Structure to design on (114 residues):
């Protein structure tokens, strides 16, 4: 029933920035905590940022100071602003509901390369 749609990825040079968006359809968005995940080829899908229903954000240490998560309940959307991107940030980025766990969307590809 619910659907996750990620967008905003692309090819960027090291040091560049991107803003990812995630739209949530078919679910009461306001009451859920959301997260951004990433998965590089051959690697595990890991959580990199989260934001609670109460709008409390958090990011993992490896992206602290570079990534910021936010949400807009009026748009049923969660965002990930990424700055100072590095090649190791290259991955397929996904969003999801942290508490329920919806079927994964297709994600949006972020490629950081010179």
């Amino acid at each position: 029933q619910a659907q996750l749609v990620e967008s905003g990825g692309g090819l960027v040079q090291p040091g560049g920035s991107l803003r990812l968006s995630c739209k949530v359809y078919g679910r009461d968005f306001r009451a859920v905590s959301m997260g951004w995940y990433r998965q590089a080829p051959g690697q595990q899908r890991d959580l990199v940022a989260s934001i609670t229903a109460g709008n409390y954000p958090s990011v993992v240490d490896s992206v602290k100071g570079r990534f910021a998560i936010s949400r807009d309940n009026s748009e049923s959307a969660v965002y990930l602003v990424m700055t100072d991107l590095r090649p190791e940030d290259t991955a397929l980025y996904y969003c999801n509901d942290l508490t329920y766990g919806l079927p994964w969307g297709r994600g949006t590809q972020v490629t950081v390369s010179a």
